[in-house]
Each structure stands twice: as structure tokens, then as C-alpha cells.
Amino acid sequence: MPASAVNKSENNEQKQSTLKNNDNQSKPDIGANIILIGAPGSGKGTQSVGLAERYQICPISTGDLLRHATQDKTSEEGQRIRRAMEAGGLVDDKTVMKLIDQNLNKPECRNGFLFDGFPRTIYQGEQLEQLLESRQQRIDAVLEYAIEDDLLKRRILGRLIHKPSGRTYHEEFHPPKQPMKDDVTGETLERRSDDTNETLNARLNTYHSQTKPLIDFYRKRHVHRSIDATQHVSKVLKQSIEIVDHFRQQPTYKLSEVIVEKAQNEDDLNTKSKQITNQADAEKRLSNNFLFIYNSVTSVLRERGII
Ligand code: ADP
Fold first, then answer.
1. 181: which of 7, 97, 220, 230 is 20 to 30 A away, CA to CA?
2. What ranges do the domains of the chain cover?
3. Phi/psi at 162 (5° precision)
4. Catalytic residue among 80, 154, 181, 192
5. What does the angle CA 257 – CA 121 – CA 114 come to, to the nearest 5 degrees?
6. Where is this chain compositionally biased, Basic and acidic residues type (predicted)?
């Protein structure tokens, strides 16, 4: 390559990296607060690894934390948790909230957090809202991994785990080289004790009746998006990142009740074309619209390197 071409390409690289750095200054690349919602087997656990790495945030799986709590066979609390899990029901909210509170303060969570399997009830959603408000934090994005129950059953009932390493396999979709043996150590694979047909049906019922209402809860807060979880793992991850990046630039989620009420009113407006009679309310709407337009325009200008 001629020297001038080398210089040109170096210059271009420098320019690109300056652009990247400037860009990073205005919207830091790491950090996000994310919630994953989805039925058992929808892929939350798999995606949480990629997302936590991408944003350098701490993954918090209440299922894993609760399973850990059941390991102490002598503890009364551990036994209570185990019974609830094996029945396919939910562990009580107080226990779950205590775990969340303890884990959010870990140093790994300083850039943000990713909840996998939490909140699972409207009550937990409300509790989380209060907790975040007191910490002056907000949720950036709630990703729902949508998938039919029949496919979930095939996914879950074939799931195999190598407990010491956490490596997972699937009898049908990702079989180990030798049946029931870990590829790396050759040790025997296991199934999760709640991955039985009976418990799974109970878990799916619990999901539909108790967790799905949270989708509407977060839709009203303008932070929810649904993703087709039947797609390839890498495609689901790519879409998840696009959505989180989009939401991170929006002033969408406000914790105060007034704003939540406003969001509900906006839903009403869409269907009923309600007239705005209150002058103060009208002014508040105008200033919110202006803020939205201002943010949209500045984000386009920033992307093009104009500001
Ligand atoms: P899955 O998503 O496949 O059901 P998890 O590991 O997330 O698996 O959860 C396993 C079990 O742990 C649940 O069926 C439930 O009993 C319990 N659990 C997990 N998270 C919560 C929560 N936020 N609230 C109550 N129970 C929970």
C-alpha cells in the first residue's frame, strides 16, 4: 500500500476513533437498567449473559438466588423456598425483595443491573419502583421474550445442566457429544428439579396469571417492547441491544405517580380524543412535547457529528 494510502487510512481511523470518543462522551456506551420478562424457557437466562456483558452491568436472577438459598438443607427458610419452587408457584414477595435489596448494592451493579425473572408480580413491580425512586434510579428498558407455550415445553423438558460449571445442553436442540455427559469434563448431566411436566404446567399458569399483567404495567410507563423469542439467540440479542440503546436516549420512564397518571391519560386520549380543558395540564403537555422533539433533534445532530 502506498504511504499516502496508509496515512489516509490512519487518518480515517483516527477520525473514526475521535468520533467514537466524542460520541461516547455524549452517550456513554456502558451502563443500563434492564428487566427481562418471559415465560420459563423463553431464553432470559441466555440473553442475560450477552446483555450483561454488552453493558457491563450485573445480572440478577432471582431464580438462581433462590436456588442457592435452598442449598442449606437445615434452614427453615430454605425449605420453604424449595417447596414453593418445586410446586411451580412463586416464592413470597418479602423473601424476594430482601434478596433484591441485598444484591443491588454489590459493586458489580455500579453501572446498572439486569433483572432476569424479577419482578414477577405487580406487587414486586410496585416495590421495585419505590426502591429505585429512593435510590434515584430508573428502568431503561423492559424486554418481553414472547413465545408459545408448546415450544416452551419442548425447550424446557429437554434441558440438561452441568451443575458445577453451569453449562447447559438440550436433548433435541443442543445435544451433548455423548448422551447425558458434559462435553468438557465427561461428568453426568442433570435436569433441574422443577423441569418436570407437572411443575412446568404450574409455572406456565403462574406466568400467565401473575407475571403477564406486568407487561401492561410497563407499557404504561413507556419502557416495554416485545421480542419474538423463537428467533436465533444472536438475533434476539441484537434486537434486545437495539431496543435498550433506543430507550437509553429517551426520557421515557418517570417514576412519579403524576407522570404515570399522565401516561394513562394519554392512552385515553388516543381512544377518546379527550379535550384538554385544564390550562395547566395543557401547558405541561406542551412542554413535554417540546422536550421530546428537542431530544429527538439533538440525538440526530449528535449522531451526525454536528454537535
Ligand atoms: P424459570 O424462568 O424457568 O421459571 P427461574 O430460575 O427464573 O426459572 O425461577 C425458578 C422458580 O423460582 C420460579 O418458578 C419461582 O418459584 C421462583 N422465583 C424466581 N423468581 C421469583 C420471583 N421474582 N418471585 C417469586 N418467585 C420467584
1. 230
2. 32-251, 254-306
3. -100, 100
4. 192
5. 85
6. 168-194
Q: Which residues does a 6 A CB cutoff place in the pocket of ligand 1?
A: 40-41, 62-63, 66, 84-85, 89-91, 96, 117-118, 120, 124, 203
16 — pLDDT class (breaks 50, 70, 90): very low
Give pLDDT tens digits for 132-173: 999 989 999 999 999 999 999 998 999 999 989 988 899 998
Identify residue 262 by its one-letter amino acid code.
K
Q: Which residues, 6 or more positions from 118, have their beta carbon under 8 angstroms from its beta carbon?
A: 35, 60, 62, 96, 100, 124, 128
Please report the pLDDT score of residue 237 as a whole number: 97
In angstroms, the CA 230 to CA 3 distance is 50
Q: Quick one: pLDDT band at residue 94, thresholds 50, 70, 90?
A: very high
In this prediction, residue 29 carries a pLDDT of: 82
User: What CATH number has the domain spanning 32-251?
Assistant: 3.40.50.300
pLDDT higher than 80, residue 251? no
d(CA 158, CA 108): 33
Flag whether pLDDT at 200 surpasses 60.
yes
pLDDT in tens, 122-132: 999 999 999 99
Q: Mutate which of 64, 85, 163 to test ligand 1's pocket (most atoms within 8 Å of Cβ)?
A: 85
Residue nearest to atom 10 of ligand 1 (CA): 63
Q: Is 120 a catalytic residue?
A: yes
Distances (CA, A) of 188 to 118, 155, 171, 175: 31, 20, 14, 13
Protein residue whose Cα sits closest to atom 2 of ligand 1: 40
Residue 203 catalytic? yes
Answer yes or no: 285 catalytic.
no
